[in-house]
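Hi R.,

Quick one: here's the GCN5-related N-acetyltransferase sequence you asked about.
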Amino acid sequence: MMTAVTDVEITRVADEPGLRTWFDVGAAAAAHDRPADPPPSWAETRAELTRPWPRRVVEHWVARRDGEAVGALSLAMPTHDNVGSALVDGDVLPAHRRRGIGRALLARAAERARAHNRTRLILEVRRGGEGEALMRAVGARAALHDRRRRLPLPPADPAALARLEAEAVAAAPGYTVVGWDGPTPAEHLDDIARLSGRMSTDAPFDDLHWEPEAYDAARIREIDAALAARGVTALVTAARVGATGPLVAFTVLLHRTEVPWHAGQGDTLVEPAHRGHRLGARVKLANLARLAAAAPEVRAVDTWNADSNPWMVAINEAMGFRPYDAWTEWELDVEPATDP
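And here's the predicted structure, written out as C-alpha cells:
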C-alpha cells in the first residue's frame, strides 16, 4: 500500500524547459549513483518531444518540494502489445532521499497507469541501491534478475578473440555474415522483424509478465528512425544461410555520438533451428570488429544478461566481458480504482 506525501508537488512535463528540468534531476542522480557510467544523453531525451519512441505513450513528471525540482518520473506504456503494463523509471536527488519522494512518485505512476487501464508497473532497479528497499516496502515482486557486464577496449587479449572467432567460423561452414551501420537495408527488413519478434519469446523472462511482441518491416523502420533522431547509430551483424539465404542470427551494438567512449549491446538472437553452430559468438565477434573500425574511440561496451541465460553469459565472458553490477526487474500490481 502506498500512502500520499502531501508536501510534494508532482507536475507533468509539457515543454522543452520542463523536460530539461526532468533530465537534469535524472542526470544528477545517475552521476551520484553510477559515476563510471556513460552520462544520460540530452539529445536522446529531447527527441522525445519530436519523435517519441515508436508504439509507446511516454509521460514525464517532475517532483518539487518547496519549489525545488527533487525527483523525476517517466512512464512508458506500450500501445500495440503488453498493453497491461507500464514501464516506470524514477530518480530522486541524493540529498532528498528517504523523505517520501520516491514513494510519492511511485504513487503517481500507479495513478497514471490506472488511468491508462494498466494493471502492473515494471521497474528495473539496481541491486543494493536505495530503490531496492522501496520496492520491498511497497510489496513489489522480484520478477527477473539480470547482470551488467563490461568489456574494456581495446581487448586485453586480442589473440584469444582471434582464436574464438576462428573456432566460431569453423563451426558454421554453411553460413555467411553480413553487416551494416544505421538503418536496416530494405532487403533485410522482413528478416530483422522476424528475429526481433523472437526476442520477446526466446529470451529468458523468468517471472516477468511480458507478452510476445509483433514486429514487421514498418516497425523496424520506425525504430531505425527513432534511433537516428536520438543520435544513436546501430551497428548490426547478421548470419545468413549460405550466400543468399534468410538471416537466421543477428546482433546489435548501439553507439551514441554524445558519449563517444561507450557502446551498448542491443539484441542478440539465433533462431532455434540454427543453434549449435556458434552463430551467436560469430556475429558478436564480427560486430565487435565492425565497432572498432567505425568508432575506434570506444573504450567500453556494456551488455545485460538475465542470470537465467548461461548460454549468452558464456559467450560474453569468453569475449572478455566481466560482471559490473546487478539489477532486478520488479513488478507492482496497480490497484483498481474504487468507487466513491
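The first strand starts at residue 9 and ends at 12.

Cheers,
M.
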